[in-house]
TrEMBL record:
Keyword list, A-Z: Amino-acid transport, Cell membrane, Membrane, Transmembrane, Transmembrane helix, Transport
Protein name: Branched-chain amino acid ABC transporter permease
Family named by the database record: Belongs to the binding-protein-dependent transport system permease family. LivHM subfamily.
Species of origin: Glycomyces rhizosphaerae
Signal peptide: none
Membrane topology: Multi-pass membrane protein
Length: 289
């Protein structure tokens, strides 16, 4: 069981990173960002092309991947989000789903739908934690999650972070005191795309990856993590991601291996969500409307 618990924590760290980006956009725009996973996909494929395809140093691939993710986020904000600002949230949601599908199609056209292997940042054997062989890449993932959690907590205590919070609460009042909603929107989408890019770069070297891998395998658990933690709580998104990862893997162990129940991981997550939302509809750390 210890091995499944350890693996769940490391998988949950990826969910947490994506969930924080989802919550950031939701707090600012009150819309579910279905393109969040593809920020990671674009970062991973860009880094792969730089490191493996062009043979350049790893750090160049990381910088290039993150730059591509942030550029995509800013383009989405300018071309899709801002023109639809006055439209219904449903229209914007459908537009963001379209962005995700369009991005996957472009990656397939350019890179072909074949599995790829990204070399890890640190080569070497695994470390035994609770009976599980944990790769150095997974340890880096947990360290990055901890650093980003502290950085986000600090950021929202700064004047810039408070401006983002003020704009999300009341855009008109924020404008009156000199806060630019356009600048805040750019910042939020830039930060969300950066977090998605980091998640993609850290997760891709753990195994093989294909076009759409972040959206198809990571996005739904990340949304579940955001809802579980509270759609307005950044710390809740981190905690929700870890909880979803742990419950998925413990579900596989208890329900899948012991009781032979099909769909054990999804069943465990569904049960956890229902339990938490029945007791606290606003999520673990969310605030009541």
């Amino acid at each position: 069981m210890g091995a499944f618990l350890a693996l769940g924590l490391f998988q949950g760290a990826v969910y947490g990173l994506l969930a924080v980006g989802i919550v950031l956009v939701y707090k600012a725009k009150r819309v579910f960002n279905f393109a969040q996973g593809e920020f990671g996909g674009v970062a991973a494929f860009t880094a792969f092309a730089i490191v493996v395809g062009a043979g350049l140093p790893y750090w160049v691939g990381v910088v290039g991947g993150l730059a591509a993710a942030v550029a995509m986020g800013l383009i989405v904000e300018r071309v899709i989000v801002r023109p639809l600002e006055s439209s219904s949230r449903t229209i914007m949601l459908v537009a963001l789903v379209g962005v995700a599908l369009f991005t996957i199609a472009i990656i397939v056209l350019i890179g072909q739908p074949i599995p790829r292997v990204m070399p890890p940042l640190i080569q070497g054997g695994g470390v035994n934690i609770l009976g599980a062989g944990i790769l150095p890449q997974q340890l880096i993932l947990m360290a990055v999650l901890a650093v980003l959690a502290a950085a986000m907590a600090w950021f929202f205590k700064t004047d810039l972070g408070l401006a983002v919070l003020a704009s999300s609460q009341d855009t008109r009042a924020a404008q009156v005191v000199g806060i630019s909603p356009v600048a805040v929107s750019r910042l939020v989408w830039g930060m969300a795309s950066l977090l998605g890019g980091i998640a993609g770069l850290l997760y891709a070297p753990v195994g093989i990856f294909t076009p759409g891998f972040m959206t198809l395998t990571m996005l739904v658990p990340a949304f579940a993590a955001a809802v579980l933690g509270g759609m307005t709580s950044l710390p809740g998104a981190f905690i929700g991601g870890l909880a979803i990862g742990v419950v998925q893997n413990l579900g596989i162990y208890y329900l899948g291996q012991q009781l032979k129940v099909p769909g054990a991981a999804e069943l465990g997550v569904f049960a956890l969500l229902m339990l938490v939302l029945l007791i606290r509809p606003q999520g673990l750390l969310g605030k009541e409307a």
